[in-house]
Task: structure prediction
Amino acid sequence: MISVLFAVLTALSNGTASVMQRRAAQKVPDNEAMHLSLIGHLLRQKVWLAGIGLVIVAAVCQAVALATGPIAVVQPIFVIELPATLLVAGFVMRVGVPRTVWAGVAAVTLGLALGMASAAPVGGSDQVRGVAWIPALVATGIFLAVLIGSALSTSGNTRAALLGLAAACGYALTAALMKDAMARLDSGGVSSLLTAWQLYGTAVAGVGALFLLQNALQAGSLVAVQPMLTLGDALISITYGVTLFGEELRTGWWVLPQLIGLVLIAVGCVVLARSPLASANTAPSRVK
Result:
């Protein structure tokens, strides 16, 4: 229950941060895309700094969630970040929530419940054994290189979607490294944590993922980025959970309801990302 609670808090913080960062990223000139000057431009915007504050809150909550639960359970819960954020935004700004938003919330919630119930992730160790990180990092690096290279050869929403998936991969890697690092804190104390390369790998992967996300949000619309970010993070995290931590999922005919759940989540995310409540252009000024 502790891991689920902190996973929900993480999702809420991350979802709000995504909308705020999208609003800031829209003001960045196109010629600053994929350059460090993009971050310098964003640092001058209060709304972006507020979003970064929420990212830090989310990181702390995520660390607690991963330290107390399997990665294949914690990370998929993050798919609720967008629907939860929109509902809270509508309440705080006293804006009526359209029926389409409620439909999107229902689709994401039902999809998550169906996917988690049918997958039923169990087992696994708290930390990665042996040299299992080596092939995982090599495969991740190749996957990111392909995504980023493909994104640089395109533009608009296609680039945004590819970079959104790359950012998702970065965040999933961050979660896996964080879980491994937190396990060492539990087994060996602070000294073991501070000497673990996973701790510093978490920081590098997290910063890289954040940079990719800012470029994704700058390149295209939220509706192109959010589904790739949400589903990509969940699926890649589950892959890390199974391959690195030995977590187990149901297979066989259980795969069918899992796929149906994924489709429901994808459709729900698209519907929600199209909502004016998720648009940085139409969001009320009090969001700043």
Notes: Residues 280-288 have pLDDT under 50 and may be disordered.
